[in-house]
Design brief:
By secondary structure, the chain is α/β, with parallel strands linked by helices. The chain has helices at residues 14-27, 43-50, 69-79, 99-109, 131-136, and strands spanning 2-8, 31-37, 58-62, 84-87, 92-94, 119-121. It has a four-stranded parallel β-sheet, with helices on both faces. A two-stranded antiparallel sheet has the order 5-6. It is globular, with a radius of gyration of 15 Å.
Length: 137
């Protein structure tokens, strides 16, 4: 039913994956979570993300070469096995414990093919290089 796709680069998505995996299990749906690292250089985030492979229906893969944001997302979508995709940025987090359940309810309505909302970014003010993306998000 649902492929949750999370691109990452030099960022640990582990806590996000644990939350999404827990919510998917609670929702009782068929799902997979794929985190694709775009050739990170920070070993600490890679070590954290490799733990994702221990979680049910979840996997972490690493690109040998940096593809860039758009190509990495496209590559992720080709790896997905389910009909519905949920793209999540690695630095976001669901606002509610029923985020996945709400998403599934919207899918079942089939009034639209694109949904958004229900996530938040960390409250900490980012560094100067990340401010535009943080504000936009």
């Amino acid at each position: 039913m649902l492929s949750v796709l999370i691109p990452t680069y030099n960022y640990s998505a582990y806590d996000l994956v644990v939350e999404i995996q827990t919510q998917c299990e609670r929702a009782g749906i068929e799902y997979e979570i794929i985190v694709l690292d775009d050739s990170s250089t920070e070993e600490k985030s890679l070590e954290q993300n490799r733990k994702i492979n221990r979680l049910p229906n979840s996997k972490f893969e690493e690109n040998e070469l940096n593809l860039g944001r758009a190509k990495n997302r496209n590559f992720l979508s080709k790896k997905a096995k389910h009909e519905w995709f949920l793209f999540m940025d690695c630095d976001t987090f669901p606002k509610e414990k029923n985020f996945i359940t709400n998403y599934i309810l919207e899918i079942k309505k089939r009034n639209s093919f694109v949904f958004y909302g229900g996530i938040c970014y960390k409250n900490d003010f980012p560094n100067e290089k990340e401010i535009l993306r943080w504000k936009y998000g």
